[in-house]
Structure formats: C-alpha cells, structure tokens
Amino acid sequence: MIDYEENVDLSKLCTIRIGGTAKRVYFPKSVEDIIQLLKISQDSGKKIIPLGVGSNTVFRDGILDHLFVSTSKLKRYEIERSEDHAVITAEAGVSFKTLVSLVKRYNLEGFENLSGIPASVGGAVAMNAGAFGSEIFDIVEQVEWIDSEGKLTVSSKDEIDYGYRYTQFQKEGFIYRVKIKLRKSKRNIPQIIKEHLKERNIKQPLDLPTSGSTFKNPDGISAGYLLDKAGLKGFRVGDVGFSEKHANFTVNYGHGSYDQLKKLLETAEKLVGEYFGIKLEKEIRIVE
To answer: Active-site residue among 165, 177, 211, 243?
Structure first.
C-alpha cells in the first residue's frame, strides 16, 4: 500500500506559498511504488505531477485532481570514494542540503556553485538547475527513471536530452535515482560554499517566500536586466511582486494568490515584449 494524504494544502508544498488543495498526494518509498503510480496514471488518464521541494513550482487556486507524487520519502543515498573522485548515488528526494554536507565533509569539488539552491535531486535534475555559471548536468553521470509505461530505464548523461534549464524529464518519465561524480579538491570547499551562500543572501530575497528565478535568461542577456529596465523591479500585483533585490525573483509579500501571480507574469511578458521585442520563457513550473 502506497502512503497518501487527502485534501493537502499545496501552498505548503512550494516555496512561494501559493496554491489550492490537492485531492490526494502520494508518498512512494521505493521504485516499485513509483512504477505502480505511473501505471495508475496511465490507466486513469490523470497527469502525474512529481513534487520535490517546490522551489520553482506554483499551483493554481482551488481543487486540483492530478496524480501528485511527493519524493519526500525517497531519501536514500550512498557515496563511493576513490583517491581522486567520489560518486554519490542519491534518490530523487535527497535534498541539496544533504549533498552540501557530504561535499563539505569530504572536500569535494564541482557542486559548490549549486550549494545554495533550495532543491531536491530529482527536481534539480528534471529542470537542469543551475547557478553561478554551473548546472547540475555538469556533474551528472547517470539517471535511473521510470517511463510512462512503468519501465525502469538507466540512462547515461550522453543518452539524455538536456539543455539550459531543460531536460526530457519535463515531458516524460519520473526520476528515481541519480548518480553524480565529484572531484576531491585541494581548495577549501566549505569556505567557498560559505562565500556563495553569503552572496546569495545579499543578491536574492531569501527572507520572503519566493519561487526563485521566474524567467529563463534569453540568449546573451539576463532576464533580470530586461525586467529591471522595463520598470518591473519591485513591481507588485496585490501581494505578489518582483523583488526589489532581484527583478527576476517573484515573491509573496503576505497573502499572494495565483491570480495575482498570473497577472504579474502576463504584465512582465507584455512589457518586455513591447520594449525589447523579446519573448520571455517561464522558468517556474505552473500547475493548473
């Protein structure tokens, strides 16, 4: 029997704290549970919605009847160390905080730029999360995932379709486990991570509920720059707005709603399109 909860407040399952109620959320503990849920999805016609930390996810208001699947109980991991490298194999629900603790403990290089992202392994890999010029696929070696028919597939990095803030897993399958490879470093990795976290705190509105980067950066230019020049830095629709610290960060100032957020995004897309002739593409995932 797969664990589940009914009538779940979705605002508690995303970092911007906006959303309605899920009729049911499942909590698989094994790959067998995931396979079973994917078969249920196929049979019922309900879309499967993986849930991690929810740092780039926004839910609409009202009752949502998708097949919500939380990875919060998929937290097993192991680490294999050699003279020069370490390989961490982590289930989808393993948090970046856990990876940071391993990286600091063994002074491993390659993850430090990603260390402040509020994410779980599965969600980060699905969107190819990145920061400070690095992305998770710089260190991914292998992904174990289940397709829509319930087949477990093991794919090497070279076999996966991925790019800037994109992977094939946004369209198909469910990530179960990921293998990443890191180098043993001669640098002081804990100190470098400390500096990265300090910089994030200065530049990003981490004191408010936020969905993080809202739009993808168009080729050769920052989405934050475009939003700022369009006069949207600090712009609000009700209790939802673009941060005064970082124009590409959407924040909830108190009792933000999905309708307010939707209007904010539509306004941003319209103004940037008019001023610069650029069509912004959302980085956040909206579940309606």
So the answer is: 165
40 touches 71 (CB < 8 A): no
- Cα dihedral: 122, 173, 177, 59 (round 10): 20
82 included as an active-site residue: no
Predicted pLDDT at 102: 97
Point out the residues of the chain with pLDDT beneath 70: none
Considering the candidates 120, 211, 283, 285, report the single residue annotated as catalytic: 283
187 in catalytic set:
no
Predicted local distance difference test score (pLDDT) of residue 148: 83
Of the candidates 55, 211, 213, 257, the residue annotated as catalytic is 213
Q: Is 283 a catalytic residue?
A: yes
Domains and CATH numbers, the chain: 3-70 (3.30.43.10), 77-190 (3.30.465.10), 205-287 (3.90.78.10)
pLDDT score, position 200: 86
